[in-house]
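pinning this so it doesn't scroll away 📌
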Amino acid sequence: MAQLFRIASMCMAYLLLASAADAQEVASTTFDAESGKFLFDAVGKGIGAGLVILGAGLGIGKIGGMAVEAMSRQPEVSGNIQTGMIIAAALIEGATFFALILIGFLM
């Protein structure tokens, strides 16, 4: 768990410090003259979309695993657990679709 926290904090530090590097003048090799956009825009948005999908997958996997665990411990309330699991997974997927659509509009 400590290693996961260390990796997450390093990623956040990189993302926070990358904005200062973006403010600098960009070399002509990273500029697409046809569209007028930087070539790294698509890469950054792709990484953002990947992180959104990764987070959603981990969240839904955790919900499913814990729900199966709870159903095996208390089979008499498995219907209620399954309903809660499906609602939580649907909410996570809804937030994921919203983020992906937002990233798509920004492209």
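📌 and the second one:
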Amino acid sequence: MEAQELKELIQQSVRETIHEVLREERLALCLALIPRVSEKEMQEIRGQFGSPSDYDKSEFVNMTDWVRNGTDLQ
């Protein structure tokens, strides 16, 4: 393996590792920002707003790709 090929392989490995670490940290931040509620508070919330299954699916935005990849929502 030539020095240039080795350098490119190392750079790609570092990029992938950094990308994965940033993804994990972004997910950890999202989880840390979700407020904790007691069971009593959760019952009050459900009483006031209902359950997610009560809402029309068209009212929701799927953010899975954004959370996984940090890309723009479409």
